[in-house]
Amino acid sequence: MAVRMLMVCALATLVCRVWSSAEPHHSEEELHPQVLHPWRSRGKGLIRVKRDWIIPPIRVSENSKQIPEDLVQIKSDKIFTGEVIYKLEGQGVDQEPKNLFEIDDKTGVIRSKQPLDREKYSNFTLKAFALSPSGERLENPTTIEILVLDQNDNRPVFPHSPFVGTVSEFSVPGTSVMTVTATDVDDPMTENAVLSYSIIDQESIPPNAITKIMFGINNKTGAIYTRDVGLDREVVKEFRLKLQVADMGGMGLTSEGVAIIHVSDINNHAPQFSPDSYNMTAVENRNDYELGRVNVTDRDDTGTKNWKARYFISNDYRGNFAVHTDPITNQGVLTVVKPLDYEAQSEYRLLLSVENLNPPSSKASRLTLSSATVTVIVVNENEAPRFREEPIQIEVLESVKPGTLLKNNIAFDPDNSDLRYEISRDPESWLDINRDTGDITAKRKFNMRSPHVKNSIYTAAVKVIDAGGVSATATVAITLKETNDFPPQVFPLTGFVCRGGSRSRKGLLLTAVDEDLPPQAAPFLFQIPDDLSANWTITQVNDTHAMLQPLVDLEFRDYAVMVQVSDSGSPALSAEAQVNVTVCLCDSFRDCKSEAGAILGSSVGINFIALIIIAASTALLLLLLLLAVAVTACGRRHHIKKGTGLLIGESEDDIRDNVFNYDEQGGGEEDENAFNIDLLWNPHDAPPTPGSFYPGSGIPPRGKQPLRKDAPHNLPSPTYPRRPPADPTDIEDYINDGLEAADHDPNVPPYDTALIYDYEGDGSLAGSLSSIASGSSDGDQDYDYLNDWGPRFKKLANMYDPR
């Protein structure tokens, strides 16, 4: 079994000697690196450790210039039995960083291939193997540890520069300011990393403000502290220190750095007013405006709480003024927060004091607070009149008498000038106001039911104006109290009462309507006058209703009952009303039956049947009389004598009802608003006789024939078609021919006067149209009267040329 061997040193200690070529060599054996037998199980010079053999670390100096350098040689006991090949693995060989070490596979000598850097790798752990030529492992691997020894090859450095610190002014010696640190990457267990600090220069800002050394530094810890007194921020603002650090306790490599120390301010100066007296002007009746500013000086650091000021007013007992600090200028801003009254006080003398936000420092001497006086002159101005209350509250009965004083002394003027009053809003014109005194009086009675009264409050407005024209307006809120102005009225005034059944089920429910409002209305009291209460009684149901009931069974008929109702007003008002009650027989639903049904079910049913028979007979006689009158009128219509006028004779029927057939109707309707006159005469028949035109039609009776102004006179008339065609398809041609002939006939009257007619059938009761008589004379006619008939006859008048 393979074991690890430990080399026996000359001093019998368990240490490993490193062979160095720099040491003198006296024998051939010492010319070779130390030989280890890690796999030898027994032999002279071996120390047995429980369970295993331990090989001490091999120490190698960093930055060695002997490259390659033999470090150690290992051997296996198997060399006595055969050939052994040595292999090496681990960090620095086949692991990063690679190629730092190698082993001679024949001799087992381990050597370094490159200079080592302890700051990168301070130790290496390798494994050595003894193998046969065939690669078979002859022994268990042996661990070899290599330690890299440090050399002072790195300077100490300050990790950041400059260092910045702060110290309060007037600090005592020994006051800690700050601590600076430096680092050295050399082995901290050696002198190579032992650092020492020092200050090698001091500079004040402003330059040469202080020349003595004000700061010291602990050479081991780097703590900077004050060494002397006299730090005054008003004299020196900061210091710049040049620092040095050295390793090997101050004897090795060095580096430099910078430390900046600011001298911080303490509140060792009180603010001072400059100047300490001010005069300012204020305008009365205005507020929230700047009155003026006061100035202070402070030698402390600007912008800090040791410099910022806080102001106070010590004698503003009414709180009319306020003062605050301008954050930029540090001035005191004096403002008016309550309106000033010139008439009450025209001048104010304010006493102001000031202090810093931070309290005075204990290091400062006793400070004296500064104060200033501000004189405020109030400027008078014309003030608006003022109402003594807003809104003006008035409480009055709605039935107040006109002229009653409602309110007086409603306003005053601060400047004691004369005032003028007026009503600016009064939608119901209920109020009046004295122009000089402002006394408000009732102009007429109020009405609670006005749409301008909301929740019993009537709202108006009054205006007051002073001598300078400055005015003010106030609302007048008049609370109206209800009075008993209207008596209640019984409702309903008609109804029915069922006869028979229980008394509790028959009766007429009455109520009352009162235009007054509570408490001048309900509850109502219903009564029947004593002299009328023989057959009827009235019972109160609740505050607003009562039941009217008969005391005895009454006949089926109408009754008039007088009912009196009273309200609860003060004084109470009452009214009487006649209630018409019908006593009837009711059905199961308490609805009054029909009159016939009620009567038939009573003892008077036979008399009622007789009455119905008489009424029916009378209606039949009237119907027969109407039929006789109609027949007589019809007979007169069918017996009109021949030659009598259809329009002015016995018949009042319109002649147009008797026209059966139309042939042609002239050349068209030019005046659409004129009367549509039916057939009058045919140009081929005899001329129409006087009176053959319609009375009131706008067409004059025949005197001299009216002539058309748009056609020549005394020309022959064209031939008109006489009979309609038998074939209905020729109707269109027949009508067109008739229109063409009428349009070119110069002898026909103007448009809308004469229409062409043709055969009207046999047996006409009207007789021949050509024989219609006219009630007019044959004298000349004056057609100017057509102009008086309106616009629709004006065109017709222009178409006639009387001769």
TrEMBL record:
Cadherins are calcium-dependent cell adhesion proteins. Residues 690-729 are annotated as: Disordered. SMART domains: CA. This is Cadherin domain-containing protein. It is a single-pass type I membrane protein. Its main location: other. InterPro entries: Cadherin, Cadherin-like_dom, Cadherin-like_sf, Cadherin_CS, Cadherin_Y-type_LIR, Catenin-bd_sf. Residues 1-20 form the signal peptide. The chain crosses the membrane at residues 608-633. Pfam families: CADH_Y-type_LIR, Cadherin. Keywords: Calcium, Cell adhesion, Cell junction, Cell membrane, Glycoprotein, Membrane, Metal-binding, Repeat, Signal, Transmembrane, Transmembrane helix. It comes from Astatotilapia calliptera (Eastern happy). One of its GO terms (cellular component) is adherens junction. Gene3D superfamilies: Cadherins (2.60.40.60), TCF3-CBD (Catenin binding domain) (4.10.900.10). It is found in: Cell junction, Adherens junction; Cell membrane. Residues 718-727 have a biased composition (Pro residues). One of its GO terms (biological process) is cell migration involved in gastrulation. The keyword Repeat applies. Residues 52-158, 159-273, 274-387, 388-490, 510-599 form the Cadherin domain. GO terms for molecular function: beta-catenin binding; cadherin binding; calcium ion binding.
